[in-house]
Automatic annotation (TrEMBL):
Keyword Transcription regulation: no
Domain Glycosyltransferase subfamily 4-like N-terminal: 13-170
Glycosyl transferase family domain mapped to chain residues: 191-306
Tree of life domain: Bacteria
GO molecular function: glycosyltransferase activity
Species whose genome carries this gene: Trinickia symbiotica
Keyword Oxidoreductase part of the UniProt annotation: no
Keyword terms of this UniProt record: Transferase
Annotated Pfam families: Glyco_transf_4, Glycos_transf_1
Gene3D superfamilies: Glycogen Phosphorylase B
Protein name from the UniProt record: Glycosyl transferase
Length: 365
């Protein structure tokens, strides 16, 4: 099978990393895979691009930023050149572009967004209603996606939920390393001192709540003065990113807060941190949350519906993170908790990749 995965822009963000993992899995399973984009690759994607090349996954990214007609032409040529049997279009804009083209290839739209893209954008809503049936299937990464689509657009004959997946083996390495270290301690050998680092991984946008994490971390320092905070992710909103830095300065804790851009070694970062913070106001089915669950790291996250499946799991606190006092105390309490293994059945990268293949076979017929 020849599979084309279409994204908006190659970058170090959750959906794009999921696509990378699925593409490699499908290529290793004997299929021929191409990842194409509408926008040029971000500089931070270079390492991922090399990994894709090493696994013989074709990448077709524009070298410059095109306007609307230019994007359509670039995409049309990429499809004509690759000759896919099926196209998976990830996120709203790529899905609209590919369905506007005169191609007969079966198209599957994957909804990743944690927000309803059609709620306040009448133009997008009208375009989706017009092009809805050009998709042979529509995938929501959560039931929330599906419910919002039904409410805004209406029924579709093939509307299904396929949860995102995580490379569990890669992220569980930190959990295994901690178990080895604990065994060394019991045998009397020295083990590394535990970190007191809180980490939040996610795009710099208001909905991800980095400002609230900085405020809560300031409160946490009253209980754990040796703690430090690491924030990293794609800088999508430059003004918001700058506001996060300004707040750390204003609160007098800039020396304890490290603010970075996107990182390609999230597994290592989770493995060398002690607490994962996720105060997002909304998510669909967060890759970052899954990665943290797989790593075994103690988690403090906002009590939103998307995280409810992990309520009651060991080392997971779901609270109202808008309450700065409570959020800060929860972070401090989490520092004393060990890593722990959590069930991820149905949410591994292999699970998701296999579901995609099953849907591809169905739409190809």
């Amino acid at each position: 099978m020849r599979i084309l995965q279409l994204i908006l822009a190659p970058r170090l963000s959750g959906a794009e990393m999921l696509v990378k993992g699925i593409a490699i899995d499908h290529q290793q399973s004997g299929h021929t895979v191409c990842i194409a984009s509408l926008l040029p690759a971000h500089g931070d994607f270079a390492l991922a691009a090399r990994e894709l090349a090493a696994h013989r996954v074709t990448c077709v990214f524009p070298s410059r930023r095109y306007e609307k007609l230019g994007r359509l032409l670039f995409l049309y040529r990429a499809i004509r050149r690759f000759k896919p049997d099926v196209i998976f279009a990830h996120a709203t804009i790529p899905a609209l572009y590919v369905r506007a083209l005169p191609v007969r290839v079966p198209i599957v739209w994957v909804m990743h967004s944690g927000v309803n893209d059609f709620l306040e954008n009448n133009l997008l809503q009208r375009a989706e209603r017009l092009l809805s049936l050009r998709a042979k299937a529509v995938i929501g990464v959560s039931q929330k996606n599906v419910d919002e689509y039904l409410k805004a657009i209406g029924r579709h004959p093939a509307l299904v939920v396929v949860p995102n997946g995580v490379d569990a083996a890669r992220f569980r390495k930190a959990l295994n390393d901690e178990r080895i270290a604990a065994g060394d301690e019991q045998e009397g050998t020295s083990a590394p001192a535990p970190s007191k680092r809180v980490v939040q991984v996610g795009r710099y946008i208001a909905e991800k709540g980095q400002l609230q994490t900085v405020r809560a971390f300031k409160r946490m320092l009253d209980f754990e003065p040796d703690a430090c905070l690491l924030l990293c992710g794609v800088i999508e909103d430059r003004a918001y990113h700058d506001a996060v830095s300004a707040l750390a300065d204003e609160l007098g804790i800039a020396s304890r807060v490290e603010i970075r851009g996107p990182q390609g070694n999230v597994d290592e970062i989770l493995g060398t941190s002690s607490v994962f913070a996720m105060p997002s106001r909304f998510e669909a089915h967060s890759i970052g949350f899954l990665e943290a669950l797989a790593s075994g790291i103690p988690i403090v996250a906002n009590a939103i519906p998307s995280f409810n499946f992990a309520r009651g799991w060991p080392g997971v606190q779901l609270i109202d993170t808008s309450d700065t006092e409570r959020y800060g105390r929860a972070l401090a309490a989490a520092l004393g908790e060990p890593r722990t293994e959590r069930p991820l059945e149905g949410m591994t990268l292999e699970d998701t990749a296999e579901r995609y293949l099953a849907i591809a076979r169905q739409v190809i017929g």
